[in-house]
Amino acid sequence: MIGDFLLPLLAARNERVFALSREQRANAGAATTIEWLRGDLCAAMPVLPQADVVLSLGPLDAFAAWFVRAAPARVDRVVAISSMSAESKRDSVDIAERELSERLRTAEARLLQAARGRGIGCTILRPTLIYGTGRDRSLAPIARFARRWRVLPVPCGASGLRQPVHAADLAVACLAVLDSNSTSGKTYPVGGAERLRFDAMLARIAAGPPRLAWPLPLPLPLVRACTRLLRARVGAGALARLTEPLVADNTTATRDFGYAPRAFRAQDVLGYADSPGAD
Fold first, then answer.
1. Which of the residues 29, 173, 195, 221 has an alpha carbon 20 to 30 A from that of 36?
2. Mean pLDDT, residues 117-123 taken together
3. pLDDT number for residue 235
């Protein structure tokens, strides 16, 4: 998702970019400075050209393992995307979520240690809920449900704060990190500019613009009971966090590299925004 916005920014800077993905992609538009490579960090990787900077926008554990064993020589800088789940799910009641948290923190530590040992400046960003392309697995499914059924259940009393962050703002952040010498060796939490109660966030998604559905307020205990009864794909950890804050403190990121994300835009959840500069 971040790459959708980052590649045009890199092309505008006339940077020579080798973009790696598991599926074959055509070169992005008329950007002659971007060349797509096909590879899998967990399996077969192509011979990579020399690069000064490596940006990881995919699964951090796979990237960290590859970087430790096979990173190209003479890399100067690394910027990698992790997740606030590294902290927020550390003590989850769901064992799978605790394992995810541990896996992320282990990957972060391995990456920073490997980079430090090779004299490479490495920066890790921990975003909150990412949205903006319609391909995320958290807000976009909710919006699609609302659009299909025209009614969106909203658990009343779901007071846990959320801080959705637009993928375009994370793309800008990646470049700002590279342009700041003070970011090397650091890990930054990064969220959007707005903190919303979970129930208020759902109501805003329903209302749009464009309006996708009518919000249907339901008591939180009823939502939990129905979820268990219907065996919905909502884990115990997710239900428990409906009243817990999952937010990031942007203060350090703002100080070190001028991080300035936008407020939450419900109309962008399904990818209506088509410009990295949309506001």
1. 173
2. 95
3. 65
Listed in sequence order, the residues at least 6 apart from 259 whose beta carbon sits closer than 8 Å to its beta carbon are 169, 173, 176, 188, 190, 250, 253
Q: Tell me the per-residue pLDDT of 155-198, one tens digit each, with 9 for 90 and over.
A: 999 999 999 999 999 999 999 999 998 999 999 999 999 999 99
204 located within any domain: no
256 found inside a domain: yes
Q: Which of the pair, 73 or 248, is modelled with greater confidence?
A: 248
Q: Residue 274: which pLDDT band, with cuts at 50, 70 and 90? A: very low
Give the largest Cα separation in the chain, rounded. 57
147, part of any domain: no
| SS3 per-residue string spanning the chain | CHHHHHHHHHHHCCCCEEEEECCCCCCCCCCCCEEEEECCCCCCCCCCCCCCEEEECCCHHHHHHHHHHHCCCCCCEEEEECCCHHHHCCCCCCHHHHHHHHHHHHHHHHHHHHHHHCCCEEEEEEECCEECCCCCCCHHHHHHHHHHHCEEEEEECCCCEECCEEHHHHHHHHHHHHCCHHHCCEEEEECCCCCEEHHHHHHHHHHCCCCCCEEEEEEHHHHHHHHHHHCCCCCHHHHHHHHCCECCCCHHHHHHHCCCCCCCCHHHCCCCCCCCCCC
CATH number at residue 258: 3.40.50.720
Q: How many domains does the chain have?
A: 1
Residue 141 within any structural domain of the chain: no
Main-chain phi, psi angles of 205, to 5 degrees:
-60, -40
Which pLDDT score is estimated for 33? 87
